[in-house]
Amino acid sequence: MTIGPTGTTTHSAPAGPMCISAKPALSDIFAPDDEESARRRNAGARRVPAERTLLIHFTPRSGSSWLGSLLDATGCLGMGLELFNPNFMPQIARHFGARTLTEYVEMARRFPVRKGSLSFEITSHQLHAVFDDPDQFFAAFADAASVWLIREDIVAQAVSLTKMVQTQVGHAANSDAETRRRTEADFAYDRSAIERWLKHILAAERRTEDYLRAYRIAPLRLSYERITTIPPRQLVELMANWCRYPDLPDDAPLSSRHEKIGTAQNLDYAERFRRENRGFLAKVEAERRSWLDRLDDPGQGLPKG
To answer: Which keywords accompany this UniProt record (predicted)?
Structure first.
């Protein structure tokens, strides 16, 4: 197997639906075998399947929601959904009429497609939780243009994730000013929780790197810090070029409903955690160094080679 020019493997995607097995624990999340499900599957079968797929591997609090909303806003680069988040799959499966993971994947190639483009986001934890065999996932999306989105400052990322879990507020788009004020007041410093979520993020990074190496995928490597320093239009053009979308409209609306909720409090907690955990963080930084060294510069366009 060899690598294609946009982070894909050069073998083609399956010509028809392949059997894809979900983890046994998820057997009850799919749609019932009834007339409504059949109607939805039939409607999906009449839709033209995606001509191109943009697959975004990510870790939580890395800017993935912001990026996904930008893709959605173009109207032509898919919708940037978390299609394989177990928390969202029951509702999506009912919308698809999908009784099995095989049908779910097949309908995912059709229902959320925009102008021939499918885009979706997935963490390695989600992939591991849903697919009984990762070989089946990577075979099903062998022709995808892959992106790997992380956050360079993993401590700030862990603080942000801890805050989201504690307060149940993830993005400014989903909350008002009063809610955000209460969030700030309710977010207490918790060293053990920040460490736990940092290890959760690190485990996701480690597993994704293992997947990319095992399946010989060379993704476009991006970070939260780098994509938020360039104009949204430039970022979307990069995504369009990476997945080979031919003509991004000049007037494509490029705004996001998502705004970060990080505050001075987040910065204070991150700095405190760094002071209290120097030895632990030195080991984390050593493990991540080679991953960070391979990040691409989105301001320079597509990587060479």
So the answer is: Transferase
